[in-house]
Design a protein that fits this description.
Blueprint (H helix, E strand, L loop, with lengths): L1 H44 L7 E3 L6 E3 L5 E4 L12 H22 L3 E5 L11 H14 L7 E5 L2 H4 L7 H10 L5 E4 L2 E5 L11 H21 L19 E4 L19 H4 L12 H11 L3 E4 L9 E2 L20
Parallel strand pairs: 3-4, 4-5, 7-8, 8-9
Antiparallel strand pairs: 1-2, 6-7, 9-10
Helix pairs in contact: 1-2
The protein binds 2-acetamido-2-deoxy-beta-D-glucopyranose (3 copies).
Keywords: ER-Golgi transport, GPI-anchor biosynthesis, Hydrolase, Manganese, Membrane, Metal-binding, Transmembrane, Transmembrane helix, Transport
Organism: Rousettus aegyptiacus
GO molecular function: metal ion binding; phosphoric diester hydrolase activity
């Protein structure tokens, strides 16, 4: 009798122990599933595209126009070989991939722009390290064929002005298109290599300025009611003010006037910006505004949210989960 009791007791003990273990595994699994997977759906699900109402000819009625759904990211800083620890890399890249893939799935943008600093070490990486970074980029930011992905170069991709070289720019443009002007659904996007706007007349800088003047000319032709003879018979762009996309922000003295979620912390807002380092020079900023007369300028670089210059364009700002600190969806 006694032995049987003991046997049952042990069995119970074994059962409850494995039950406890099972419970722990289940809890850990649930936590991981939630924090590393489901949270992205929950957070991004709260974002919505704004409904754009455009007054039709009949001013009584408001009609819904077809709209272009565009998503903007900046400063993804894929860690490189030199400064990236494998664990840090693994974690950040998982977060970015999940955030991006979830946003693609839930929001279904038609075009995605990345406003520079896609890579952290493009400014000095060897060709082998560069190829490795590019491969990981393609895996993380994979997207269906009908979604277009456009990028502009940042100082970490091709180096600051003093590090920038034709080799690095070519290498970058071989992976990503070297397109500067992109029009879709009546919207013109101008993608500026803002690292080349130093204004010192270097070769790369003069080329970049010449390109911008050409684009300015094209845009002016499409905006003029009576085309001047200089416009030629080329295909006209949609007659709308462009949206300017660049890595460096336009010149501003500081972030003192910025507020809201994802703005710089209050104690940092008053710190003056350095021209040609934190922001474009006043001269380059003025040129961009004169030449292109944009209705909206979006930029990256400062890792804080800002909007510098907007004219009647609605943008839905939607932050990613907090832990995903290196990138913002604008
Ligand atoms: C286009 O028009 C703007 C505004 O009138 C002007 O500032 C700019 O220089 C023009 N661009 C070219 C290439 O003439
Ligand atoms: C903040 O905005 C005011 C009013 O528009 C302007 O006068 C001031 O220069 C701005 N400050 C900064 C640092 O940009
Ligand atoms: C803003 O847009 C309106 C209408 O398109 C235009 O009349 C106005 O000049 C623009 N303002 C600036 C600062 O570009």
């Amino acid at each position: 009798m006694a032995t049987i009791k003991l046997w049952f007791g042990r069995q119970n003990f074994h059962l409850s122990k494995s039950f406890l273990l099972l419970k722990i595994i289940a809890v850990v699994f649930a936590v991981l599933l939630f924090c590393e997977f489901l949270i992205y759906y929950l957070v991004i699900f709260r974002c919505n595209w704004p409904e754009v109402k455009i007054r039709g000819y009949d001013s009584e009625r408001e009609t819904l126009e077809p709209v272009l759904k565009a998503m903007f990211l900046a400063d993804t800083h894929l860690l490189g070989k030199v400064r990236g620890h494998w664990l840090d890399k693994l974690r950040r890249e998982w977060q970015m991939e999940r955030a991006f893939q979830t946003a693609l799935w839930l929001l279904q943008p038609e075009v995605v722009f990345i406003l520079g600093d896609i890579f952290d070490e493009g400014k000095w990486s060897s060709s082998q390290a560069w190829a490795d970074d590019v491969e990981r980029f393609h895996k993380m930011f994979r997207h269906p064929h009908h979604v277009q992905l456009k990028v502009v170069a940042g100082n970490h991709d091709i180096g600051f002005h003093y590090q920038m070289s034709t080799y690095r720019i070519k290498r970058f443009e071989k992976v990503f298109n070297r397109e500067r002007l992109f029009s879709w659904k009546g919207i013109n996007f101008v993608m500026v290599n803002s690292v080349a706007l130093e204004g010192d007349g270097c070769n790369i800088c003069s080329e970049a300025e010449a390109e911008l003047i050409k684009i300015s000319h094209k845009l002016n032709c499409s905006r003029e009611a009576h085309r001047s003879s200089q416009c030629g018979d080329g295909q006209l762009l949609p007659a709308s003010a462009p949206i300017l996309l660049q890595h460096f922000p336009l010149y501003r003295r500081s972030d003192a006037n910025c507020s809201g979620e994802d703005a710089a912390p209050p104690e940092e807002r008053g710190i003056p910006f350095k021209e040609r380092y934190d922001v474009l020079s006043q001269e380059a900023s003025q040129k961009l505004l004169w030449w292109l007369r944009p209705r909206l300028v979006l930029s990256g670089h400062t890792h804080t949210r800002d909007w510098v210059y907007t004219n009647q364009t609605r943008v839905c700002f939607c932050p990613f989960p907090k832990s995903f600190s290196n990138s913002y969806m604008l």
